[in-house]
Design a protein that fits this description.
Bound molecules: flavin-adenine dinucleotide
Order of helices and strands: HEHEEEHEHEHEHEHEEHHHEH
Helix content: 40-55%
CATH class: Alpha Beta
Number of domains: 1
Radius of gyration: 20 Å
Shape: globular
Strand order of the largest sheet: 9-8-7-6-5-2-1-11-10
CATH topology: TIM Barrel
Number of strands: 11
Largest sheet: 9 strands, parallel
Strand content: 15-25%
């Protein structure tokens, strides 16, 4: 079922969903099941599975020269999605990125998904490789997420790169940034680009994590001002370690409310920090749910027990 159809069906309810990471290379699908089994009591209608582009590294070889190597630590997104759908009977949403794919490879990946009955996809640009500093598209690949949205929309009309064919039936999610995407020169331009993604065919938006609900509420109001009327799913992550108060802003370009930072600094040990983060996330979730958001989407990053605690308090 399409995510948007599901949300429309449950329009007076807030549903829950989770985002998981593929295991590190060599890991087993059992580790995914072990993470998801305890979360299934909350009946998530869908699970997102992230996609990780290969990175480059330079390894020193005997003789002192450096060899450029390519590493992909977390492959397996599509296979994991198929396994999740098969085991739990819920929708799995693979993240598909522009980085590292030519448009032909993107088309082939989408054909594979369609064959597997995976009809929801989160279309993303992807970040820069760590050693490159700025996003460099694959030669013959897409520059921006909107280009992938347009490609999927064409396939939904039966228009493939080389010829016409059977129309696919993808529901397309895209990313939105309540605190602005870090590369956008200002919020106005970021909103214009988001509006273009939606006009090009995106069916719903999932937000970057935020720790102040007002940022989400303001973002939704702004989207509506820009005539962006698709569902906007808030993405949440609890803070679990003290180091994250400086690390998460540097990775995700998010701000922490003063009250949360003070509580984390005052916490006397690791367990107390985690408890502060969980309680904050529970309060955020309860407020968002009371305001009738369509879905609460949690970035699990493999930490199951935390989400069992949050789920039990909120749902
Ligand atoms: P875009 O929508 O293409 O936007 C990128 C930047 O370009 C923005 O600053 C935008 O304002 C600007 N822009 C857009 N269109 C144009 C245009 N036509 N001309 C000029 N500028 C333009 N990354 C992964 O690698 N794997 C994942 O699984 C993953 N999952 C994610 C899930 C969510 C919910 C979110 C919020 C992010 C996720 N990311 C993931 C990170 C994401 O790939 C990065 O944030 C990336 O930098 C931007 O992706 P995007 O799809 O928002 O890009």
């Amino acid at each position: 079922m399409k995510i948007t159809d599901y949300l429309a069906q449950k329009k007076d309810e807030t549903v829950i969903s989770f985002e998981i990471l593929p295991p590190l290379k060599g890991g087993s699908i059992q580790s995914i099941f072990d993470s998801l089994d305890p979360l299934m009591e909350f009946k998530p209608p869908f699970i997102d599975v992230t996609y990780h582009r290969e990175e480059y590294d330079y390894k020193q070889r005997p003789g002192g020269y450096y060899e450029k190597t390519s590493i992909r630590k977390r492959p397996g997104t599509v296979g994991i999605c198929a396994a999740i759908m098969n085991r739990y009977g819920v929708e799995a949403v693979p993240h598909l990125i522009c980085g590292g794919f030519t448009i032909e490879e993107t088309e082939n990946a989408l054909i594979d998904l369609s064959f597997l009955g995976i009809n929801n996809v989160l279309a993303l640009r992807g970040d820069a490789r760590k050693l490159e500093g700025r996003f460099i598209p694959e030669p013959g690949g897409h520059n921006f997420a909107i280009d992938m949205v347009r490609q999927i929309e064409k396939m939904n009309k039966g228009e493939y790169l080389e010829s016409a064919g059977q129309a696919t039936d993808f529901c397309i999610g895209v990313a939105g940034y309540p605190e602005k995407h870090f590369e956008a020169p200002n919020m106005k331009l970021d909103m214009q680009f988001l509006k273009e993604k939606v006009d090009a065919g995106a069916d719903y938006i999932v937000t970057q994590m935020f720790f102040d609900n007002q940022k989400y509420f303001d973002f939704v109001d702004l989207c509506r001002e820009y005539d962006i009327n698709v569902p906007i799913i808030p993405g949440l992550k609890p803070l679990t370690r003290k180091s994250q108060i400086s690390r998460l802003p540097s990775i995700f370009y998010v701000n922490f409310p003063e009250e949360l930072v003070e509580a984390v600094i005052k916490a006397k040990d690791k367990a107390a920090v985690k408890q502060v983060g969980i309680e904050w996330c529970i309060q955020q979730s309860k407020e968002l749910k009371a305001k009738g958001v369509p879905c609460l989407h949690y970035y699990t990053m493999g930490d199951v027990n935390t989400f069992v605690k949050i789920g039990k308090e909120v749902f």
